[in-house]
Amino acid sequence: MFRRGLNICKNNNGFEIESHYDRILHSCTSLAFLSQIHSILTTTGIIKHSVHLNARVIIKYSDFLHLQSARFVFNATDHESSSFLWNTMLRAYANSGFCSEALEFYSLMRKTGIRPNNYTFPFALKSCADNLLPTYGKLLHSEIIRTGFGSDIYVEAALIDMYAGCDFIQDGRKVFDKMSYRDLVCWTSMITAYEQSEQAETALHLLHQMQQESFCLDWVTAVTVASAIGQLGDARRAQSVHGYAIRHAFFQDLPVVNSILSMYAKCGEVEKAEIIFHQTKQRNTITWNSMLTCYSQNGQASEALALFEQMKISDVNPNQVTALIVVSSCSYLGSQQLATKIHDFIIQNKIETNLTLWNAIMDMYAKCADLDTALRMFQEVPLSHLDVTSWNTLISGYGMHGYGKEALKLFNNMITHGFQPNHVTFTSILSACSHSGLIEEGRNCFSEMEKLCVKKEPKHFACMVDMLGRGGFLDEAYELIKNMSSEPNDEVWGALLLACKIYGNATLGKVAADNLFHLEPQHTGYYVLMSNIYATSRNWQEVGKLRQDMKNKGLRKPAGVSLIEFDNKLHGFHTGEEFNSFTREIYEKVERMVVEIKMVGYVPDLSCVFHDVEEEDKHGMLSYHGEKLALAFGLMNVSDTGLAIRITKNLRVCSDCHLAFKLVSRVYGRKIIVRDVNRFHHFEDGFCSCNDYW
């Protein structure tokens, strides 16, 4: 059909064939065909007589990002008096992302004497926003006022977008408030500006004002509103906008479907997101990524990776965003084999790996207990191409594995090479010092923050309290909290409560717990910790009160799950797994394992079990903790003694299992790597890398 149209045009020299060429240009899908058409238009001389065809060819070249050819067409035309062609070329630069070239072209346009109009300014303003040039944008704003276009609705909407893109929201709001008339586009631009600057409540308040002025949402506004509600995590309002989208048939537009799906994900409504995903037959990459993100953000990493397997056999290609989500999910699970597979997939499918993705893959390997690969990836990047996140990732990796001295060395190298540490850097290095018991070094790093002009945030105080508390400096930790310039948050008090658990300080523990119960009344873990402190001091009356409080509030201790990978599958174990044909052998292995480690000094730590349980039952409950079941499974199936047994737990490993794992590593001559919610534990020959400091 294309060639037929081309032949018609060739055979009609001198006739009115502009419409034929226009249709052909519109349907052109390759640069080679476009060049052929351009050649015919030039040799026949037709293009000289049609401003419209010149503009069409310019835009078509820009669609293929061939801006040099587009500029060649512009230069070959009689454009000196045609603002239409100048605007077309400016549009080509702006919409193709050539922001600097667009602004240079605008300057040339002004020097040539071409007067800008209401089509010119929006493209110039867009380039300012995309290139984050608020100063240039304000100069354009002044010129807009001087040339009399300050009250043009299209220009005003572009000004709002420019100020929003440059993070000058208040300047954009001033333009908005001065408008004599606002259409739906202007309202949507201002609402979107607030949403993108994470001022969701203000965005929704403005939406309410818009509706009071009798404007109805279109699908573009609905996308913005869904994103704002997602930021707030407001499930009630999420249902409302979902219903509105259905009633107004917006679900025919895939961007609306994707935004509603993403909104439910951020509200923690996984089941509702699943329903929308499965009801959507025509899915694009964003749809898949939205559902993957939903699982990943809501702690369902296994479901995310299972969905990724489905995506791979669909007709949609994973992209860089997909890779980031999947890498994050693998980091959560801590599977080394899976990490290698995902990295191989990224390479084999030639997914562009920018520094953000590279850093994420480094982090994945570190969290999957493969520090050697993480370090190798760090060293493969030229020093000049690294960023602060690259350094932070490796410092954090060393810290979580208990290699505090190596983390400090890396921190010093970072400063030596001219990289400015940020608040994340200090969180990582203080955490590393805490996990390794490097108290004096941690104090020095904390003091160093002021010299390097890094503001101390609650997260840093939490790390310091954790470090001092684990080291037995409970009074100093409490004094640090009392002297904070801002209100201590739950992380700070939580660190103190954990330290009180370690040292059995019920008095100070109660102070921390009372603050935590006020700040996070629904957080079960704090009740359990305080209950354990009372149990250690045999204060059963207070234990009973706390358990009753939990019951009254409907709080339940979160279920612990321990994961171990074998034969390319992740196997999960919970405490007290149901006895069946699969678990029978595992239970028997646990019993033999306990007998053997008792012969080298294992004594069960019964403080890990509630007091109102029979003594015999306490021993049984400890033996069948999820991590012990996972370990028994590993000993049964990972026959190569040179391979480490790797286990991931979603909660803190208990003191009884920690002791048992040390002794198992000695008796069986196996290396065991456990990642709990706080850190990594490397068990070998009867010792743990944490030096019992966790």
UniProtKB/TrEMBL annotation:
InterPro entries, per the entry: DYW_dom (IPR032867), E_motif (IPR046848), PPR_At4g14850-like_plant (IPR046960), PPR_rpt (IPR002885), TPR-like_helical_dom_sf (IPR011990)
MF term (GO), any: mRNA binding
DYW domain: residues covered: 601-694
An individual GO BP term: RNA modification
Protein name: DYW domain-containing protein
NCBIfam families in alphabetical order: PPR
Family assignment from sequence similarity: Belongs to the PPR family. PCMP-H subfamily.
Organism superkingdom: Eukaryota
Gene3D superfamilies (UniProt xref): Tetratricopeptide repeat domain (1.25.40.10)
Alphabetically ordered keywords of this record: Repeat
PPR repeats: 82-116, 183-217, 284-318, 387-421, 422-456
